[in-house]
Write a sequence for this structure.
């Protein structure tokens, strides 16, 4: 790997790790600052058909589909003492692995990077010794310039048709 | 069973709304529900529009039982039990598709899309005189109403139209006068540790929880003032309870909120999206109800619920158009205190693609596992179910007493020209009691059956 490529890879890896830390620590407002204004986020519904795996994800129905405004509004609501989803003493831990840069496009003072990663999210709650897991592949588009990395787009492809978690109030 | 006896006394004799907490988490109750309720009533499976062409299928469940809901080469919709008649293998392992036949991967028995056994390898060598016409896939009864597909495992049960009874009047208002509804995409599916009846009774409807659980929906701008989430009653809010189905049994409840008398709302559809709505398909009063409706929520016994509510958004800080959200769902029990949810966003077939897309966006921002309303319901339903798990829980009785004759007089709605017992308020719990009444009737039938 050339030093330029390595540097870009480390920037992306660092970004994904930092972002996971913010989300695990429920620092949602700080996470919002990592998103570009035209941020798009999708978690499509998965269903299996006789066709190939790429076609298992719906282009019409999603579990979550929104932009920065959507998340800002949701996070504000959850801060309220009646924002019940975030009041269950849930803990989330994201394990981000298999980070791979699939495409790099150089533009006007910035680099657009397509990054694929796996995420394993483990959620525990209150005094319960059991946990829920969500496993997924993420296809991200990162915008990298001299000073910072921003998340431009994220498509999270869950490994489930029937999602084994009672609610999802956080980004994956 | 003591628990059922206790429910009988509370709901069919004393009418005191007191119920054992254990109904929400008990292995025997779960098993009995599968036999007494889910094997004998009409259960929602999906929409005809999900399988428009010959050979189209979706796999759906009633409890743990898998069925292939398929349109055969003769155009007829069937529900085939997803199990080979030879050694029982599950035939179909996809969720949806199109096929002319299913071949079992074990010994190669093959069925066509009408469920007939059309191929048996080594037939002449081993099965020469075997009558394949008697060994087609097992089928459950299927019928449709307003494009909704229902199945019934009981061959002796009354027809779907009988079962729905007076609730047809309300289904027609939603599905017929709008020119039919179709899903924006495949259903959202997820599983959670709560009892299916908590969801069903909540949509039956539980107006009182909205001011507490969903207070923030309105406060943070996801829904308009005085709409979903409002703790303030408007004079034209009604709940229609005790809607009678076949045999005069209560089969559904529906809550309807309406705007001021002269306004036209049509559930918050923009004017250009009313085109497919027609008053010719329904009666005058039904049309009047739809014209002024801003919020409709119902449960059809046992586990099919729907909610349409005007004036919502996914981005309160943004400028995108506010549209109604539309959520229709099945609460499928898969274990004691364990429920699978299947949720469709249904939109009028004839509405514009942009409107359909927008309704989809807004609906999933409010309902579904990550929706801002539903993400708050589920932890609470889980907490009910968890509290009901133990032995001390057997002593606990919970009080569903809102609007009992001995507690608060509800009055009746004189102007209402539709079927059911119309109350001029939604601040009551008679609607949930209607659900439980039918539940205990069905469960008692189970006990009598065992005797």
């Amino acid at each position: 790997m050339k030093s330029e490529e390595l540097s870009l890879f480390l920037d992306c890896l660092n970004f994904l790790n930092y972002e996971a830390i913010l989300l695990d620590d429920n620092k949602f407002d700080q996470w919002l600052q990592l998103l570009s204004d035209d941020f798009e986020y999708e978690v499509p519904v998965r269903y299996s058909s006789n066709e190939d795996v790429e076609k298992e994800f719906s282009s019409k129905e999603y579990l979550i589909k929104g932009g920065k405004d959507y998340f800002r509004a949701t996070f504000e609501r959850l801060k309220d003492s009646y924002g019940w989803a975030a009041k269950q003493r849930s803990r989330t831990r994201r394990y981000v692995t298999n980070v791979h840069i699939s495409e790099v496009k150089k533009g006007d003072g910035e680099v657009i990077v397509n990054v694929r990663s796996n995420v394993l999210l483990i959620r525990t709650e209150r005094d319960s010794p059991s946990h829920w897991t969500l496993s997924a592949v993420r296809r991200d588009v990162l915008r990298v310039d001299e000073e910072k990395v921003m998340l431009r787009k994220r498509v999270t492809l869950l490994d489930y048709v029937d999602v084994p978690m009672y609610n999802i109030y956080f980004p994956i | 069973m003591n628990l059922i006896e206790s429910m009988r006394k509370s709901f069919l004799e004393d009418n005191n709304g007191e119920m054992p907490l254990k109904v929400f988490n008990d292995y025997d109750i779960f098993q009995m529900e599968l036999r007494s309720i889910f094997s004998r009533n009409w259960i929602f499976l999906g929409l005809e529009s999900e399988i428009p062409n010959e050979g189209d299928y979706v796999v759906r469940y009633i409890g743990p039982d898998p069925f292939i809901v398929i349109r055969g080469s003769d155009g007829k919709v069937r529900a085939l039990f997803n199990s080979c008649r030879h050694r029982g293998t599950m035939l179909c392992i996809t969720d949806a598709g199109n096929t002319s036949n299913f071949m079992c991967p074990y010994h190669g028995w093959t069925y066509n899309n009408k469920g007939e056994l059309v191929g048996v390898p080594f037939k002449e060598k081993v099965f020469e005189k075997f009558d394949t016409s008697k060994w087609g896939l097992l089928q459950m009864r299927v019928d449709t109403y307003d494009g909704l597909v229902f199945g019934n495992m009981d061959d002796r049960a009354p027809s779907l139209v009988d079962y729905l009874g007076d609730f047809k009047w309300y289904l027609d208002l939603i599905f017929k006068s709008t020119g039919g509804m179709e899903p924006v995409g495949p259903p959202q599916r997820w599983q959670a540790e709560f009892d299916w009846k908590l969801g069903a009774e909540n949509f039956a409807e539980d107006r009182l929880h909205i001011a507490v659980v969903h207070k923030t929906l309105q406060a943070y701008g996801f829904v308009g003032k005085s709409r979903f989430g409002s703790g303030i009653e408007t004079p034209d809010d009604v709940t229609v309870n005790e809607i009678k189905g076949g045999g005069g049994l209560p089969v559904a409840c529906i809550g309807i909120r309406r705007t001021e008398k002269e306004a036209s709302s049509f559930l918050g559809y923009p004017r250009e999206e009313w085109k497919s709505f027609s008053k010719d398909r329904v009666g005058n009063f039904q049309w009047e109800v739809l014209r002024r409706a801003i919020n409709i929520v119902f449960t059809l016994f046992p586990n099919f619920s729907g909610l349409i509510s005007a004036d919502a958004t996914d981005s309160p800080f943004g400028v995108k158009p506010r549209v109604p959200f539309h959520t229709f769902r099945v609460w499928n029990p898969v274990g004691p205190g364990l429920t699978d949810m299947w949720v469709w966003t249904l939109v009028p077939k004839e509405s514009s693609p942009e409107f359909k897309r927008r309704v989809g966006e807004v609906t999933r921002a409010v309902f579904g596992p990550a929706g801002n309303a539903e993400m708050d319901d589920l932890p609470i339903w889980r907490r009910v179910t968890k509290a009901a798990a133990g032995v001390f829980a057997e002593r606990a009785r919970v009080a569903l007493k809102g609007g009992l004759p001995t507690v608060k007089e509800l009055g009746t709605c004189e102007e209402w020209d539709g079927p059911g017992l119309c109350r001029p308020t939604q601040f009551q719990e008679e609607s949930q009691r209607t659900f439980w009444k039918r539940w205990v009737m069905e469960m008692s039938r189970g006990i009598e059956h065992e005797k």
Observations:
- Residues 89 and 106 of chain B are 7 Å apart (CA to CA).
